[in-house]
Specification:
single chain, about 90 residues, alpha+beta, 2 helices, 3 strands, about 20% strand
Length: about 90
């Protein structure tokens, strides 16, 4: 019998309008327990307004050793980079 709890990835959004950021991982029996544990571990000082948990087995990631093949087609599309635009000073940071 396997007594290990699944591993969950935890994402926290610190303010409205910002993206969720990966803050770490934890073990829990289910999603509800993972959210409660994430709240206790990662938002003790009210650092967040929203928590996402995703079971690690459901996350698919690219292989860093294959990044050249994965990103190579983008190198020929420099028009996708915003280096050709002048941003007025009054716009601020973008």
């Amino acid at each position: 019998m396997d007594n290990t709890w699944p591993l969950w990835e935890v994402f926290i959004r610190s303010k409205n309008g910002l993206s969720h950021k990966h803050v770490g991982s934890l073990h829990a029996t289910d999603a509800e327990m993972a959210i409660e544990n994430a709240r206790d571990v990662y938002t003790r000082r009210q650092e967040g307004i929203s928590i996402w948990v995703v079971e690690s087995k459901d996350v698919t990631a690219s292989n860093p050793t294959q990044s050249e093949e994965l990103y190579d087609p983008a190198k020929n599309k420099i028009y996708r980079h915003p280096t050709f635009y002048d941003i007025p000073d009054e716009v601020g940071h973008m």
